[in-house]
């Protein structure tokens, strides 16, 4: 059985326009986030229009992919809205345009009630580690996100209610 077939697709609202995961963003990555309930992952091929030099995926796109997978790790695994405070990236091997990538994210450790350390990694089609990251994320309840103006009631209902319930 294929590894992808054993994973559960995490709900994502079809009207979501996020550059990283939004199905409605025609210019974005449209990452579909999956889980085995211990970590989250995505399988994607970066399109040509996000190319850096010499058919290499642009470093900013790599950073976006890692930020996205780490955010979803916090959201899904901890059932909180996770927003990036800081993140560091090690670029280890070039990821190439057109090469299927595997992206993984997981919780490293909780830092009190409102912060968590999350890790991310990107592998190429040969299972070579291309980049890894670690980030400190703030954890927000839906009420905090609403109060801070991070999300509207509609966004909370459409995007996160099915996950956070």
Description:
- The chain has 165 residues and is α+β, with helices and mostly antiparallel strands.
- It has a single domain (3-164), classed as Hotdog Thioesterase (Thiol Ester Dehydrase, Chain A).
- It contains three helices and seven strands.
- It has helices at 59-78, 142-148, 153-164; strands spanning 8-9, 34-35, 40-44, 81-91, 101-110, 115-123, 129-140.
- It has a seven-stranded antiparallel β-sheet with strand order 1-2-3-5-6-7-4.
- The radius of gyration is 15 Å and the shape is globular.
- 27% of the residues are buried.
- The mean pLDDT is 91.
Q: What's this, in brief?
A:
The chain has 165 residues and is α+β, with helices and mostly antiparallel strands. The chain has one domain (3-164): Roll (Thiol Ester Dehydrase, Chain A), CATH 3.10.129.
* Count of the domains: 1
The largest β sheet comes out as: 7 strands, antiparallel
How many DSSP-defined strands? 7
Distance between the termini: 31 Å
Question: What is the average of the pLDDT values?
Answer: 91
Count of separate DSSP helical elements: 3
Q: How is the quaternary structure best described?
A: single chain
């Amino acid at each position: 059985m294929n590894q992808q077939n054993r994973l559960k697709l995490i709900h994502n609202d079809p009207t979501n326009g996020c550059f990283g995961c939004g199905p409605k963003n025609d210019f974005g990555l449209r990452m579909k986030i999956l889980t085995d309930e211990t970590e989250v992952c995505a399988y994607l091929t970066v399109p040509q229009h996000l190319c850096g030099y010499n058919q290499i995926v642009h470093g900013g796109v790599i950073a976006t992919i890692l930020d996205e997978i780490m955010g979803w790790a916090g959201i899904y695994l901890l059932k909180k809205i996770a927003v990036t405070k800081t993140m560091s990236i090690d670029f280890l091997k070039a990821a190439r345009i057109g090469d299927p990538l595997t992206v993984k994210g997981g919780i490293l450790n909780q830092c009190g009630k409102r912060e968590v350390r999350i890790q991310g990694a990107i592998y190429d089609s040969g299972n070579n580690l291309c980049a890894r990251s670690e980030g400190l994320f703030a954890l927000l309840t839906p009420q905090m996100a609403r109060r801070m103006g991070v999300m509207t009631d509609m966004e909370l209902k459409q995007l996160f209610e099915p996950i956070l319930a």
